[in-house]
TrEMBL record:
PANTHER family: PAC DOMAIN-CONTAINING PROTEIN (PTHR43304:SF1), PHYTOCHROME-LIKE PROTEIN CPH1 (PTHR43304). Residues 205-257 form the PAC domain. Residues 275-484 form the Histidine kinase domain. The lineage of its organism: Bacteria, Pseudomonadati, Bacteroidota, Flavobacteriia, Flavobacteriales. SMART domains: HATPase_c, PAC. Its EC number is 2.7.13.3. GO terms for molecular function: kinase activity. This is histidine kinase. It catalyses: ATP + protein L-histidine = ADP + protein N-phospho-L-histidine. The keyword Kinase applies. It holds the Pfam family PAS_3. InterPro entries: HATPase_C_sf, HATPase_dom, His_kinase_dom, PAC, PAS, PAS-assoc_C, PAS-like_dom_sf, PAS_fold_3. It is an enzyme of class 2 (transferase).
Length: 484
């Protein structure tokens, strides 16, 4: 269907007037149907937004329509809205105005258009009462609160549903000065960026963010905001809504976590298959070749040399099989009974075993288990995890300073964490980000580096539905964060 046919169908089927919007306000045009819908002829009106706001639109609708209109022109933010427009006979007609993308069909217009669909207006007193009822009902059913920040008065305003969602009393007065405290600590910068860009550049926002209630409960919301303009088209505030999406968001995060675990398990299976098919096959092929050579050689001295090579290959083969057995054992033993173990007790076991290594390297270990002293876990796994991460920090210490290892346990949003930080050589995350926990992956040139420790540690943690992440900077150090 041709573009003009689509356009004509919209006008005919929906009986709609429209405005053509251009970058130059003087070039804006109102359609003949728009004039007819309010009883005027083109010569009687000035087709400009300023004239419309001052003379035609109902005062109750001015602010919201002005904000929507300017956001549409400046930021291409589509909208639809009900407004009342004054007719030539002195009565108001109700219209639903909508931008191009809000139409039920795509008219593929090359210019921005604003359509006006006439709606039969009910008696005003009945409409207002019913609108208020539907507004409250909708807000409560969708857990959506409204808010407004007034830059001129330096005040914030919340509706009834906002106070309910944030667990504040009905007479609570929101504080603009302390507004950062309404957001989770790790989301305060995100909130500040959204508000600053909206206030200074007029950039609307639609984001997911964590907020904090009066009772210190952290929850997820979808926050939507847009600038408020005055008659001089200056930004004088921000108006918006937020919806409680905590249940949905947490289910989404749990699903994502499950998908990550599945992806990780697939990766482990791939590693396992690779080792079986490549490493073991390589060892066995070399053994077969050497055995054939030994059979074909008569010189005893040459045979002895080849036998020594057989020993070396046999040792490598045995080591590879042991690593594979360790991986299988982790996932076989994950159903072992968990016990309440103290981090300090596990650490003491590890430190007693590597005391000489710590002393020779002059390693300093700083511990903070005050916030979370114990956890239900498999003791052998915890000791193995601490051993691998601590010995790695010592092995890969910085050449210019003695190792300092900080170990801290803590809780955050009912989740339990262990963080281990060192001041060692660090890892180039740009090069090795996706390989840190891979099997037989090494990132330094130590002769004794095998590349199995972190792989086994990750397997142990994930076998109990936990996660491990790494942050590192070359020559600064490395931090491992374990979420149990």
């Amino acid at each position: 269907m041709l573009q003009n046919e689509l356009f004509d169908n919209v006008i005919r089927d929906f009986n709609a007037g429209y405005w053509e919007l251009h970058n130059d306000p003087d070039k804006e045009e109102w359609s003949q149907k728009f004039y007819e819908s309010i009883g005027y002829v083109p010569e009687e009106l000035d087709p400009s937004i300023d004239y419309f706001l001052e003379n035609l639109i109902h005062q109750e609708d001015v602010e919201v329509f002005r904000d929507n209109f300017l956001n549409y022109k400046k930021n291409s933010v589509n909208f639809k809205q009900h407004i009342k427009i004054l007719t030539k006979k002195g009565a108001y007609k109700l219209f639903r105005c909508a931008t191009n993308d809000e139409l039920p069909v795509n008219i593929k217009s090359e210019i921005n258009l604003l359509f006006f669909f006439e709606i039969k207006l009910e008696p005003e007193h009945h409409t207002i009462a019913k609108d208020n009822f539907y507004y409250k009902e909708t807000a409560q059913m969708t857990a959506t609160g409204s808010w407004y920040v007034d830059f001129q008065k330096r005040k914030s305003y919340w509706d009834f549903e906002t106070r309910r969602i944030l667990e504040y009393p009905d007479d609570y007065i929101p504080s603009l000065k302390d507004s950062a405290n309404y957001y989770a600590e790790d989301c305060q910068q995100q909130a500040a960026d959204c508000f600053f860009n909206c206030a200074m550049a007029g950039t609307p926002f639609n984001t997911e963010i964590k907020m904090v209630t009066a009772n210190k409960r952290v929850f997820w919301v979808r926050a939507i905001g847009k600038p408020v303009y005055n008659e001089n088209k200056e930004i004088i505030g921000i108006r918006g809504v937020f919806q409680d999406i905590d249940d949905i968001k947490r289910k989404e995060l749990r699903l994502q976590k499950s998908m990550d675990i599945i992806a990780s398990q697939n990766s482990r299976l791939f590693n396992f298959a690779h080792i079986v098919s490549h490493n073991l096959r390589s060892h066995t092929s070399n053994l077969s070749l050497l055995v054939q050579l030994i059979e074909d050689i008569d010189n005893p001295e040459e045979k002895i040399e080849l036998v020594n090579e057989v020993k070396q290959i046999s040792y490598s083969l045995n080591t590879t099989i042991e690593h594979l057995n360790e991986i299988v054992a982790i996932h076989t033993n994950k159903d072992q009974e968990k016990k309440n173990i103290r981090f300090q007790d596990c650490l003491n076991v590890v430190l007693n075993g590597i005391g000489q290594m710590i002393a020779l390297s002059k390693t300093k270990i700083e511990v903070d288990f005050k916030e979370l002293e114990e956890i239900a876990y498999i003791p052998a796994y915890m000791e193995s995890i601490l051993l691998n991460l601590i010995t790695n920090s010592i092995k890969y210490k910085h050449v210019d300073r003695d190792p300092i290892i900080q170990i801290k346990s803590y809780t955050e949003e009912n989740n339990k964490y262990l963080k281990i930080t060192d001041n060692g050589r660090g890892i180039d995350m740009k090069l090795f980000k996706d390989k840190v926990f891979g099997m037989y992956k090494t990132f330094h040139y130590n002769k004794d580096a095998v590349g199995i420790g972190l792989f086994l540690t990750k397997n142990q943690i994930e076998s109990l539905n936990g996660t491990i992440s790494v942050e590192s900077e070359v020559d600064q150090g490395t931090t491992f964060i374990i979420e149990f």
